[in-house]
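Hi there,

I know you've been waiting on this one. I reran it after we fixed the sequence typo, so this is the corrected version. Both the input and the resulting structure follow.
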Amino acid sequence: MNVTIYVRLSQDRHGDSLGVERQEAECRAFAEARGWTVREALSDNDISATKGKVRPGFEALLMSKPEAVLVWHTDRLIRVTRDLERVIDLGVNVHAIHAGHLDLSTPAGRAVARTVTAWATYEGEQKAIRQIASNVQAARAGKPYTAGIRPFGYGDDHMTVMPKEAAAIVEGAQMILAGESLSAVARAWNEAGLISPRSKAQSTKAEGWTLRGVKNLLTSPRYIGQRTYRGDVVGEAEWPSILDEATHYACVAILNSPDRFSGGRRTGRVPGTLLAGIALCGECGETVNGRGYRGAPVYGCKATHTRTPRELADKRVGNSVLARLVFPDFLPSILAANAEQDGDSAHLHVEAKNLRERLDGLALAYAEGAISLSQMTAGTEAIRAKLDTVEGKLTNVTGLPPIDPVAGIAGLIEGWPNAPLPTRRAWVDFILVVTLNPARGRHARNMSIEDHVTVEWKHSEPEE
């Protein structure tokens, strides 16, 4: 008799396929002892038969039209009724080393198979209920879920802190708080050779950090010593924390902000253009960002009221900044005003501190399940908008944008085109109010540079 061997293992913890190899060896020995010829052996390693996942080996078995099937145990072949019915449709006998013979060619045999499978399904469901209850109890006790892949920052026991990885997590969080992007954090970790354990486990070739992976890590309560179950915090964890709560909740607030778009203000990302998040649309008053239009780089608001050529706007704004810097009275008047107003900064510092504490509290409430994500993001948007206003006032009160202590203003003027983008952006935002005007039916070639871009100087004395 020709038989087709089918073997399966639900979970291969070590990834070495030894479980299915042992099943196949026993099946071959069983067939040899009875003089059966093994037509082929099909396997599914590390695949459950109860979770609805496609089993390639099982599908290949059904397509192969076997004369008979040999398995280590019937539950390796079928665990749910829907799969049994597909095997019954084959009309062949199923031989199992440790569960006897199922004659699916007769009504009585099929009835027995259906009964056995129904009880197997029942036991599987009961086992799942018991496992869930056990997992919930362990989670509430703060114990780690050690059956999964080890988390970045902790050892194989999910408890011991890995110093190098922990330092990278702290550094990554500080980068986000300093306004750097998820891309910058991922790049720093990849360049340091710090590969995600999940990436290592799921690929023979270790892959780098993704933006989603970095965000999930930096917003996970695990790193402040909190145990979660299915996304909800259920108690204090047994393992030590890596981040302090203030840093963690600040990252949560930044990375879940609805205003987090490329190039805009309050995004936590580093803008890649001079006027993104600074210049205003002359129609709606919203800030603009960099984009493309018919292959050309332009600035535009979300509603695309304006599509101002980027090169034209940058040149106009740069010249305006330099023109203001060369005025003899400009910097002395600003410095004098700062000296007079320095005493007013104390209450602004207090207000900023209170706003930051509110942000932390909002994030904490979300992490503890007291508010929803939409509530947290909406509240974060409102508080951060107010905090930006206060911090803008503090910038004007306490100092100027960056100036090279050696080159000074003269060096800034001379080297403006090659100055770092953050420096040029800071000076534009400090000196100018930039408005990009919509065409309003005019063709771009018929518009002057002043038609496109309106510039007003800040910190100027009103005319008498």
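Quick highlight: The first helix runs from residue 18 to 33.

Best,
R. S.
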